[in-house]
Amino acid sequence: MLQSNTFSRKTKGGRIRKEVREVYLRDDIYCGATACKICDASGARLTSSPIIILDTNVVLHQIDLLENPAIDNVVLLSVVLNEVKNKNMAVYNRILALSKNSLRKFYVFSNQFHKDTFVKRMDGESPNDFNDRAIRVASHWYQTHLGGATSILLITNDRENKRKAIEEGISAETIQSYVKSLGQPELLDLLVNPASESEGVAMEVVEDLRPSKIQVVYPEHKPMSEITSGLHRGIYHQGKLRVNRYNSFEAYVGSESIGDEIIIYGRKNMNRAFDGDIVAVELLPQDQWHEEKNLSIADEDDEEEEDIRLAPSSADDAPRTTNLEVGSATNMNSTPSHPSGRVVGIIKRNWHSYCGSLEPKSKPAGTGGFTFVLFVSKDRRIPKIRIQTRQLENLLDKRIIVAVDSWDRRSSYPSGHYVRVIGEIGDRDTESEVVLIENDIDSRPFSAQVLSCLPPLPWSVSSEDLANPIRLDLRHVRVFSVDPPGCKDIDDALHCTALPDGNYEVGVHIADVTNFVYPGTPLDDEASQRGTSVYLVERRIDMLPKPLTEDICSLRADVERLAFSVIWKMTPEAEIISSKFTKSIIKSCAALSYVEAQARMDDSRLMDPLTTDLRNMNALAKIMRQRRIDRGALTLASAEVKFQIDTETHDPLDIGMYQIREANQMVEEFMLAANVSVAKQIRDYFPSCSLLRRHPTPTREMLEPLLRTAAAIGLSLDVSSSKALADSLDHAVGDDPYFNKLIRILATRCMTQAVYFCSGDLSPPEYHHYGLAAPLYTHFTSPIRRYADVIVHRLLSASLEIDKLPTIFQDRAQLTSIADNLNYRHRNAQMAGRASVELHTLIYFRNRPTDAEARIVKIRSNGFIVFVPKYGIEGPVYLTSKGEKGGGEWFVDEEKQKIVKMDNTISYSILQPVRIHMEVVEPQPNRPKLQLTLII
């Protein structure tokens, strides 16, 4: 039976367009209840009474509660899922995961396709009223359909919807009353209380939680209509708020409209914005602008509520010095380099769940068994969050997860709710899980559906593979791999064969992952969502299941494996004569570590064929590298740290900077060459749907900190092009052995992130990779670890007419969405890796107070940031202590990049070596940190 629904939709031009959708109604959509005598019960999941039907707002706001196993036997109506999908994609994915979890009883009922529950929208009916009516109709049908075999309960917090449901004979309750009826008080902690219900009690509690009794009022956020108008007129500026990791009272908003970063100083000017929020900012009058070097490094025990009084709201209000501003630094250069502003509205919230612990000194308050306490996030950029709990005694020594619900303008703190316990504070496994949760890393075991996509073990190359005409048999070729020590997920191998004509055949062989990961399968979907493998200090979170990463796809020594190969014929001068792309079968003769490969090349006594291949390949790589540098490629540096881990306890035994050898650079050079060759191939064949990688050129403003530092030490850097900058960095040498490396680290920090993109979304000049000085670049060489490479393998295979191009490549919007997710996952993996390094650094130095030499890399009004080359550690050093007066005052000489004591007895300059003492301290409960103290 056909039915139609009419919807009104607003177009981008602001016009209202009516759309008519025809729906085929069926009578064979089953209710999902095992007690039903009418429907086919083979796929039924609802086994007990009552059966719960949720309205949209309950799903949107109470997802943390719904994920608790105590909530089960739930019907998810399609009309609810559609509305949730339109309003919050993250919640939609979470509720959908519950419906697919075989251990949970969540059943999706397609009410708008069932002939007895279909609801036609009435003229003048609002979308909200239409959805509520559809939910009530479906609830009533369930009640009638099951005929008393089991009870039906509609859960809604909408008073009008509840009233109408009861009038229509449907049992209905609020989520709060339903949870109370379960007799599990701890579930009440998971509830998100609507602002209308919690506001009164929230305001009451604020006074008990704040040490200061001064009333704090944040400015109201502007309505979106006014923000949109202000952005068009240039009154407001839009950008992402980034909170300083060393000072949570200081944030930056990168604004394209003014081409500069806007400093947001003080909680009042941040106006309830969180790190990562997209905000609208209004510039302050220029006489209120803060010079960046006059901003201080915040102390760990600074009280954030004090800071709310820092920023004046008008030119007549002079900023006062608080314990945040340790010392009263002045600036010899009075012209501020960055504009300052205040947040006037939130365009898009970045709220998510946060890991941390409860503040032990919080004063208990509340009624009905609840205690109101402050939650302190491990992420120092996040303000304290007020929650209510019945489990205070059980939670004080635990790392817990808390979600933010709201932030009232009359409250010092945002309000949130408890989600779950992670584990004991200080336990390494607990703290490692915190790292994963904070960076949204999925570390769950792969599902049965994903694992069912794998070929059975043991796996080996079959006779069909050997007979396949698309595969080139290279088992006779001397192929080898060079990787970090202990590497098991080997996705690249090499060969370099001297030819009779004096040239070389050079091959890059990459694991043929797409031979096992088919588009649209659960395995492919999982890899697409995870996006990348994540490397922590003590373990690896795989993008693909271990049977693939460590066995079937891994190019291990002495076993036959399937590969996708790029093979060049090269002259001894590393000029490419010809290129070939082919699926292949290889048998690696050796899986070497970087140290082993380097030792072979350095040992003049070794003249065996494998060592000769290594030396020939290294000679070609050196030529290729120099040619790339001559073209303008940058050689940058990062503070990469390497740990030696105890195999039994997993505790760090030693820590130091990661050493780069010629063997590393050799492998890198040929991986870059393969990526460039593949990028050109897929772009030529698929100009509008290729997945490429670009590195935007940094703006002059982004490079300003590097230029200021260089000028202060008498160094002239030319940043007019990547070639000019590369040459300048090569000439930046001094007596200090760390000098050039430090300059390169500072240059790296001025760069933008390289990102994936769909070729059809940008023009060819925008494809450029600044750091590599390459007009085209992609990722092809690590499909075991990166989903981007899986996509590129499919594109390359289609360009060679080996496989058909999957249909997803015809949907540019979906490709763009995939690229966005890959960029998000890639950045999160980087952040998780750094957080893991910080965690293990704390563990290592916990009982090892150490003195070391450091270099100053950033000047601030009350101290400076230093880099410790031996350990690859960076952190703040304070020159003043709280409450220090008179002789403790310092001023910043912006031009010379110095901080000078007022009596001119002491000064410290950028890149100056200093001695520091490193020791783990805990200035706030449950927030240990590595404290760096100046040794004079």
Automatic annotation (TrEMBL):
<keyword id="KW-0539">Nucleus</keyword>
<dbReference type="GO" id="GO:0006364">
    <property type="term" value="P:rRNA processing"/>
</dbReference>
<dbReference type="GO" id="GO:0003723">
    <property type="term" value="F:RNA binding"/>
</dbReference>
<feature type="region of interest" description="Disordered">
    <location>
        <begin position="292"/>
        <end position="342"/>
    </location>
</feature>
<feature type="domain" description="PIN">
    <location>
        <begin position="50"/>
        <end position="163"/>
    </location>
</feature>
<dbReference type="GO" id="GO:0004519">
    <property type="term" value="F:endonuclease activity"/>
</dbReference>
<keyword id="KW-0271">Exosome</keyword>
<keyword id="KW-0540">Nuclease</keyword>
<dbReference type="InterPro" id="IPR041505">
    <property type="entry name" value="Dis3_CSD2"/>
</dbReference>
<dbReference type="InterPro" id="IPR022966">
    <property type="entry name" value="RNase_II/R_CS"/>
</dbReference>
<dbReference type="InterPro" id="IPR033771">
    <property type="entry name" value="Rrp44_CSD1"/>
</dbReference>
<dbReference type="GO" id="GO:0016075">
    <property type="term" value="P:rRNA catabolic process"/>
</dbReference>
<dbReference type="GO" id="GO:0000175">
    <property type="term" value="F:3'-5'-RNA exonuclease activity"/>
</dbReference>
<keyword id="KW-0269">Exonuclease</keyword>
<dbReference type="InterPro" id="IPR050180">
    <property type="entry name" value="RNR_Ribonuclease"/>
</dbReference>
<dbReference type="Pfam" id="PF17849">
    <property type="entry name" value="OB_Dis3"/>
</dbReference>
<keyword id="KW-0378">Hydrolase</keyword>
<feature type="compositionally biased region" description="Polar residues">
    <location>
        <begin position="320"/>
        <end position="338"/>
    </location>
</feature>
<dbReference type="Pfam" id="PF17216">
    <property type="entry name" value="Rrp44_CSD1"/>
</dbReference>
<dbReference type="InterPro" id="IPR002716">
    <property type="entry name" value="PIN_dom"/>
</dbReference>
<keyword id="KW-0698">rRNA processing</keyword>
<keyword id="KW-0460">Magnesium</keyword>
<feature type="domain" description="RNB">
    <location>
        <begin position="471"/>
        <end position="802"/>
    </location>
</feature>
<dbReference type="GO" id="GO:0000176">
    <property type="term" value="C:nuclear exosome (RNase complex)"/>
</dbReference>
<dbReference type="InterPro" id="IPR029060">
    <property type="entry name" value="PIN-like_dom_sf"/>
</dbReference>
<comment type="similarity">
    <text>Belongs to the RNR ribonuclease family.</text>
</comment>
<dbReference type="InterPro" id="IPR033770">
    <property type="entry name" value="RRP44_S1"/>
</dbReference>
<dbReference type="Pfam" id="PF17215">
    <property type="entry name" value="Rrp44_S1"/>
</dbReference>
<dbReference type="InterPro" id="IPR001900">
    <property type="entry name" value="RNase_II/R"/>
</dbReference>
<feature type="compositionally biased region" description="Acidic residues">
    <location>
        <begin position="298"/>
        <end position="307"/>
    </location>
</feature>
<dbReference type="GO" id="GO:0071031">
    <property type="term" value="P:nuclear mRNA surveillance of mRNA 3'-end processing"/>
</dbReference>
<dbReference type="GO" id="GO:0000177">
    <property type="term" value="C:cytoplasmic exosome (RNase complex)"/>
</dbReference>
<dbReference type="Pfam" id="PF00773">
    <property type="entry name" value="RNB"/>
</dbReference>
<dbReference type="InterPro" id="IPR012340">
    <property type="entry name" value="NA-bd_OB-fold"/>
</dbReference>
<protein>
    <recommendedName>
        <fullName>Exosome complex exonuclease RRP44 homolog A</fullName>
    </recommendedName>
</protein>
<dbReference type="Pfam" id="PF13638">
    <property type="entry name" value="PIN_4"/>
</dbReference>
<keyword id="KW-0694">RNA-binding</keyword>
